[in-house]
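Weekly modeling sync, notes
Attendees: S.R. (lead), two postdocs, one rotation student

Agenda item 3: backlog of single-chain predictions. S.R. asked that every request posted to the team notebook include the full sequence so nobody has to chase files. The rotation student volunteered to paste the first one in as an example of the format we agreed on. Action items at the bottom.

Example entry:
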Amino acid sequence: MLGFATFAALLPELRDVWRLSNVEAGVIGGMFFTGYVATVSYWTALTDRHDARKVYLAGSLLAAAGSAGFGWMAEGFAGAVLCQGLLGAGIAATYMPGLRLLSERISGPAQSRYIAFYTSFFGIGTALSLALAGLIAPLAGWRTAFLLSALGPLLAGVLVFVCVEPLQKQASGEKSFSLTTPFPFAAWRRVMANRASAGYTLGYAAHCLELFGSRAWMVAFLAFSSSFHATATFPLQLATVAAVVNLVAVPASILGNEIALRIGRRRWILVAMAGSGSSGILLGLAAPWHWVIVLGLLVLYSMLVMAESATLTAGLVAAAPAELRGAAMGLYSLAGFAGGMLGPVVFGAALDVAGGAGKLASWAIAYAAIGAGCLAAPLVARSARIGSARL
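Predicted structure, as returned to the notebook:
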């Protein structure tokens, strides 16, 4: 995942160098998710019939090519869109197939905790990506930052393929997908007929729209906040600050899953979503405040955004029919990252519509726009019936 947040870390610089509007910058950030959404169900459904290690290795090569291509050829909006899409397609073949590799080898009560740790490492990967870009770009330029990030997925692919032993796939009487289409609609209909699976899938879409929208614009928000302070401003480079915030927020997903095991998944999901949606608006309004307060609110917001992530994923894995788990995880990931695709665009568009990135109210409105789904979570939960309080 070393290339995952490189563009987000360098967004203020590249937006100025390429003279991008906020909408164009949001589209580039969102194109990662376009590549992800277009391919994730295909990759994940493949794991129902083939060795997931091979899928993971293929994705690692694609992700490396996307980052390397960004460093070598991107000269503006068009090249950035292409390489971000390729990077998204590559990570699509690693994230959920990697979760499939794990869930097939762990069962029983421990499975939920292993899944919580796995999904939390997405945040660690994001933090490392931000930190690497923030460290390398000032020293060697933004192109070098992208080229070095390509080494991460190459190493990951080798580690998984060599260190994880293969499992024999059992023959299934029903094909969940076809090689001619990445969308196994028949299997998805069966998955969505399960109310719990449908609810977790919808919840994940709302969660990812807020999560990836906020991450894509975090460095830009910190730059805006910093503009209010001539002296006592953030003590580290902004990309480094964002990396630390993402890293600090990682335990929230693990802790949230533990809380959910005690009070019920449905109840915890609603509490966490309401908290993240409301605190995002407060964060946007707090940009002129002292940097200590801004960072405190940013950490709180990031933790609340992450708090239901593992709970949603563990719930989907538990609720999905065993013979359709790959297809269910593919649909779940597709829905979530479709939200992730929209998040950066919605944020950027809200900034522009509200008067531009130079106005304080615009940032509060942008955070409200990406958090609207989470603020509406009680209504979504009531209509979709996301499991029971003790599912």
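Discussion: group reviewed the output briefly. The radius of gyration is 20 Å.
Action items: rotation student to repeat for the remaining queue; S.R. to check formatting next week.
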